[in-house]
Design brief:
The protein is α+β, with helices and mostly antiparallel strands and 151 residues long. It is 36% helix and 24% strand. Strand 4, helix 5 and strand 5 form a beta-alpha-beta unit. The longest helix is centred in the last third of the chain and has 15 residues.
Length: 151
């Protein structure tokens, strides 16, 4: 398996993976051709040195997984850096093979390489299997997350 930064020509497959689950189908707009808003977002992510949109390729050079890793500089923790994991997806036909664990462990090591003192993620409470998966990897529920949606 190859872990690498996503390229523009990967974008349709990445969005397809993000939109493939129960919650993603409700909030994403995957279609062919891919809406321009995804390309604009990709350009912003790609230009930002603190954002890494990562894809996983198998031996046949097919995309089988993705995640976004964000590095957040802040003043607390003595000017520390935290890494935020978002948008973790494994292609439907590749699930159950341990690829998700490999992807998260890769992200943890990448965060350490970049000098982060912690890695964090959120998962929807409607995904109990994801919560168990992350707990198995050592993540702890330490804070109560809150959101304010504008639309």
């Amino acid at each position: 398996m190859l872990f690498r930064k996503a390229r523009k020509d990967d974008l349709a497959e990445v969005v397809k993976m993000i939109a493939s689950d129960k919650l993603g189908k409700l909030r994403e707009d995957y279609k062919d051709p891919l809406p321009t808003k995804y390309y604009k977002a990709f350009q912003a992510i790609d230009k930002d040195p603190n954002q890494e949109l990562i894809v996983v390729e198998n031996a046949n050079k097919e995309l089988i997984g993705t995640l976004q890793l964000s590095f957040i500089q802040y003043l607390t923790y003595q000017g520390g850096i935290r890494a935020q994991i978002e948008g973790v997806r494994i292609r439907d036909d590749q699930r159950g093979r341990g690829l998700g664990e490999e992807l998260i462990l890769w992200a943890i090591n990448r965060a350490k390489e970049r000098g982060a003192h912690l890695v964090q993620l959120t998962t929807d409470k409607k995904r109990p299997e994801a919560i168990r998966f992350y707990e198995k990897l050592g993540f702890k529920s330490s804070h109560e997350g809150m959101k304010l949606h504008f639309n």
